[in-house]
Amino acid sequence: MEGNSLSLGGSITGTGASGPMGGGGSQTAARPKAQTPGLASLVRSFLHEHRSSYTVMVLAVMAASVLTSAWAQVAIAARKGDGMPDTRAMNSYDRAMTLSLRDSATLISIMYACICGFVSIFLVITSVGFLIERRRREYAMMRLSGASPRTVRLISLLEFMIPVGLAALIGSSAGCLLVPAFAKSLINSGLEALEMTAHPHPMGIIFAFAGILLAGLLGTWFAARRITAISPIEALQDSENRSGTKSIGPLRLIIALAGLAGGLAMVYHRFNGMDIEIQILATTGCLLVIIGALAPVLVPACANLIGIPFQLAFRGAGLLARQRARKENRSSTAVAVPIILMLVIVTGVIALGRSSWAQEAISRYKPVAAETMVNAQTNDPRDLDRQLQSTAGVESAITYSEGSWKTADKEDIGGNDEPSVMAMHVNKAGKDVNTISPIFIKGSAADLGPGKIAVIANGRTQEKNPIGRKLTLIDRYDKGHTLTITAVVDVTPTGQMGQYLMTDADLSQLAPDNSGSTTLARTAPGVRTDDLISQLNASWDSKGIKACTKKEYIRSDIQRSQKVQRAMPQIANGAIVLTAIFLIQACAIAVNERRQENRRMQAAGVSRGTLVCSSICESVIDSLSAILLSALAMAGVLAVIFHQLSGQVDMSVVPLPYGYFLIMALWAIGLAAAASGLYSWFSSRADTTRR
């Protein structure tokens, strides 16, 4: 069957025609017999003919496989507790914290592995589809030679399975070398208390290899099926005549309109009960759907507009770059997609993290009536007492310190056996002290003291009648303290969080983990807040205590979130590495697939410098198109943030990721220009030497 379906290919080989069945042969009539090429020889000839493109793709897939495999192995190592100390020798709180850190490391590494895997799979499919699109003339000649569409698809599967499979296998195996470094990077992203020595795990190698290989095969199958679905005559049309004429299909249009409707709804409609994090994620997803559906039209349209200055500045090279960027849908989209994914996803995630922290800080401290807030790194209120009581400008003040405990009560409502307990200490009781005190829903302040504790209502709303229940807290020495719940309080006016509230200062000092203290102070009538803050900051006997206004405190709390969210730069670095891999691949493949056209232009008298300059300009135009589309997408994300937060607080206190966007955009432009310029220069130089 194979010989019959490909018999015409043998005659093409024998006549010396240049086609996928073989190179030009001698046109002799005395040839004894035309041999029909088999599948193996066809696949081998394709691999040899396009070895430059495959080399670039193999290196890119190897790099993506290394990252995905390494993070998958780190996730498995964290889940199994590689190198972690024996928790049975720890006290209750340290054991609980170690297990919590292990779970956090597992979740974060799984998230990193999923991000690397998702981006790798998506871009592998895009790259394979781009290469198959460039093969359509060869596949059309095979169809005209008698090959069936099924045979063409089988050849394409075999052709791409070999390089993608080898690259995925080598890269996944090489990921073992990066497991210790990635584990150390994970620990340095905010899990410094975790002791873990990660080791390679074969299961992570298998997951990465299977996922990337399957993605490559599926991308190959669907791309080849799309090519073989059109007639051979249509597929034989030159790319310059077909590019830029493809209209948006009805499915793409419906998807884009659905994404637009969803994005507008997220921006302008305030959904009850929906957090800003969900709205930002939904908006980012809708915008990516719109850009992904319309990318074959949006990218060339933007390139056509952006290419005008390049045409005026570089004349011949700029004109050629603009024409290619406008017409080459596949190559322009292949360059633009990695940049769009990097800019939109990374800046969207950073904006999500910072905005959610800002919203939490704003919602917590906006109801606070204190004009002055004092932040201290210690839970000992003695120095605060001495200074606040002796300062006439302070009308009333209360210190709240937070400590994390371990509880021995299995029936603890909510399933949280590491509750956060707030300790309240009245430094100075003036007439306005009630405005910065908790609201007692049940009981009163007189019901608190040694052996007694209150439940915070917003943290324990599901418990109907907690009064009288016993609670056993385990201190840092593994000693239990049994307390009786005597009140239910609402701490919204204080801006504090937690599950319980106590007034026993001696017991609060035994908390296994203390998080410092915050003092709320009301200014006496006739006293300027700025003068009081200056007086207090000049009077502290110990370091680590600072007074500020409420607005400054909110700003500093949001800025502290950037230090806490140390995983953000690592997410950005990982996205930059993945983008670099596939951006270099897309630029190199685009240049390589145009080598034959460049040879014809050089033979017509076009200089090598003009072609290299044109290649650089084209990559820069494609990159700027991607940046423009990403900026429009990020405008939608920022619109959600401003719409939700601008009415609550001055937006100047919210650190939005403009710097990340600008740095990554400039880096993408430089990398695309360098990759295209270098590859175009060396390939044209090799062609000149060969001639």
From TrEMBL:
Region annotation (Disordered) ranges: 1-32
Location in the cell: Cell membrane
One GO MF term: transmembrane transporter activity
ABC3 transporter permease C-terminal domain ranges (all copies): 111-232, 575-683
Pfam families with a match to the protein in the record: FtsX
Membrane-topology descriptor: Multi-pass membrane protein
Compositional bias annotation for Gly residues: 11-26
GO CC terms of this entry: plasma membrane
Transmembrane segments: 54-76, 107-133, 154-183, 203-224, 251-268, 280-313, 334-353, 571-591, 624-646, 658-682
Low complexity: compositionally biased ranges: 1-10
Subcellular location, principal: membrane
InterPro entries per the UniProt record, alphabetical: ABC3_permease_C (IPR003838), Macrolide_Exporter_MacB (IPR050250)
Keywords associated with the record: Cell membrane, Membrane, Transmembrane, Transmembrane helix
UniProt record similarity statement: Belongs to the ABC-4 integral membrane protein family.
Protein name: ABC transporter integral membrane protein
Natural source organism: Bifidobacterium mellis
